[in-house]
Amino acid sequence: MMKRVINRQTTWYVINIKARRNQTPQHYVDVWNLINERDPLIEMPRTTNRFASIRTMSFSQQCDNDIVPHYIETNLVTYTLLDPKKFYNRRTKEDMAIDWNTDIAANKKESTLIFVPSVHTLVVKKSTEITINYILTYLRGALGIIEPEGFDVDLIKDRETLDQILQAYALISIDAHISFSNHGHSEGFREIFENKIKDTNPNTFDIKISGTQEHPLSCEEEDGLVQSIINISESNGTVKAVVQKDENTGLEVIDTENHPFILKIPQIINDICSTIYNELRARYANNNSNE
Length: 291
Known about the structure:
Blueprint: E1 5-6, E2 10-19, H1 25-38, E3 42-43, E4 50-59, E5 63-64, E6 68-69, E7 72-81, E8 87-89, E9 94-96, E10 105-116, E11 121-125, H2 132-146, E12 151-155, H3 159-166, E13 170-179, H4 188-199, E14 204-210, H5 225-236, E15 237-244, E16 251-255, E17 262-265, E18 268-269, H6 272-284
Antiparallel strand pairs: 1-18, 2-11, 2-12, 2-17, 3-4, 4-7, 5-6, 7-10, 8-9, 10-11, 13-14, 13-15, 15-16
Helix pairs in contact: 3-5
């Protein structure tokens, strides 16, 4: 069968979704089925009556090991629920109550989420109508309803930004927030460091390390403490660092929360969902960056 190729670049946010227990692809599929079945209504932060829920969800007919669908495609919508008793006529300056169907919502926005269960990774277009923070809020809220405290949801961070921290002229301090869910397969000190923390069975791990401009932190050691923390945070948390990038520059704060990794797909082969599936499998199926 001839492949249909569209030479058009698309860009995507990448989200690492990790179960704290039962870390199998089928578990992720089962949870997505429950989200679809229960369709939880999740309120968006810092808004008034703005919510998100599922419009549609479809499962790939192609499966890994005959049971796990290659991908799950979800159309998510956000909207404002209006109180029919709290309308206002700005021309007559009168309060009004309107008799109408309260299931009707306003200001709808919609985005498509593509989740690949075999690598517990989800993508959404960078040009998404729904903001990435609202999407993260929905995912954390919906997963929390299905399995309270059962999942971590982390936006994967930009590798170049992490390298800027490690390669700065002086690293003054780091403030890291790390989640530990999946079994790691790292080596050397990083493996020891991860395992020692996991032995305490935390859901999250916060660490602050501070130096001075005269005596900055050392991050030259290959796979040392600072490098391990920053590298783990790429797919499993955030780091806020104070750095002096060059000898003659002042101090600067780099917060990786503001620097997500953007996946660039140069062309679509056959369809976008299978293209995303193949790309994520190639990146994450046989390496450790997403564990």
